Amino acid sequence: xxLNADAGFDSDKFRxxxxxxxxxxNIDENKCNSNKHRDxxxxxxxxxLQYGIERTNAWMDSFRAILNRFxxxxxxxxxxxxxxxxxxxxxxxxxxx
Length: 97
Prior knowledge:
Elements: E1 2-5, H1 12-20, E2 24-27, H2 44-61, H3 64-70, H4 74-96
Parallel strand pairs: 1-2
């Protein structure tokens, strides 16, 4: 299993738990909280992909008022998510062109 997380998750205790659970961490060093430089390996190309995922989750959260009001069944939850994805895609396609 592989975990790609931002620097907010950088702690010795969290890394130890991940190792104990057999999880490979890809966590950037938190420069604000770190008193010492640790030799950690990080795949920055994979780490950069995390931003797109978190941005998409934030966009979905902006539709939460609609989703929470009408997602009484799995099919309605799925439908409202598809509507939010379409709105996000349309907004982004307008920025590109």
